[in-house]
Amino acid sequence: MDSLTHIALGACMGEAFAGKTVGRKAMLWGALAQSIPDIDFLAALWMDTPSSLLAHRGFTHSLLFVALITPFMALLAERWHRPHDISLLKWILFFGSVILVHLFVDAFNNYGVGWLEPFSAYRISFNAIYVADPFFSIGPGVACVALIWLRKKHLKRRFWWKFGLVTSGLYLLYCTSNKLQMDHEVRYLLDKQQIAHVRYFSTPAPLQNWLWYVVAGDDQGYHVGYHSLFDRDSSIHFEYFPRNEFLLDPVHERADVRQLKRFSQEFYTVEKWSDTLVFNDLRFGQVVGWLAPREKFAFHFYVNRPADNRTVVQRGRFAKWDREATRALWQRIKGD
């Protein structure tokens, strides 16, 4: 999830744990603990782009990292706030649970999380919620603002931290239910439309949880389309994108190309844009694909211009968004 949502969630958890004992400082500890796994963004300062893509949500999002950082943070907080009546074990349980919540929530979107690093490079990804979903964030965000505003002894503080945690938890359950329904419908429609595939995934289109982006295919290419929970049509319109693996033949031994393949989890295509060789990671969707089905993919890496890829994850995510694209998204959510 986005950093502000993690901070708000952590603040609510901190208030729940020790708001009455250490006041607003508990919110700061919670926000810090929720944010600490994202320290991996510093890797981009010295790594090349493909390496930093793999480093993000890697070791610092692993269970081993939780086991290492939790006692350190617990000891620091326990000593900082002496005298108090909170045992070291309670501090450990608090920090461990807050950091684990970060790892758990991040696994619900499509980037993937390395829970088992460094013992396994496998990334866990449930593909159930968009990385920045305002409907998930609004509950803990409002609660965090209320907790900052209210006095330490105010009776409403208990209500607000519960509100932030419960609303986000319920929305996550709702998204999971949508995911299960979507996968059931899409798999049925893929069989009905006789679309053979070895690999498949569905993930929400930007900023909501009702219109889903669908990819199905194999080493030859992928069928890409969109399906709404409110669709009335008994089929999905797919566009086919060939993988074009042969275009990578001259560079297939390069380390960055191997890293991109690993990062994409095999969901990729290759294209030539004029004289530029482009690697597309299909998992991040298309640029306004619900409006223009043949649009570029949001994640496109310039293989022969590596210096131009510093913002590769972000540059296509909201490109070409305007009033028409936003209106088309709303209309597509409502269903065909």
Average per-residue pLDDT, rounded, comes to: 95
Largest sheet: 4 strands, antiparallel
Q: Please report the total strand number as a whole number.
A: 7
Strand order of the largest sheet: 1-2-3-4
Low-pLDDT stretches: none
The total domain count is 2
Radius of gyration: 22 Å
* N-end to C-end Cα span: 30 Å
Describe the protein in words.
The structure is a single chain. With 336 residues, the chain is α+β, with helices and mostly antiparallel strands. It folds into two domains: 3-175, no CATH class; 193-333, no CATH class. The chain has nine helices and seven strands; from the N terminus they run αααααααββββαβββα. The strands form two sheets. A four-stranded antiparallel β-sheet has the order 1-2-3-4. The protein is globular, with a radius of gyration of 22 Å.
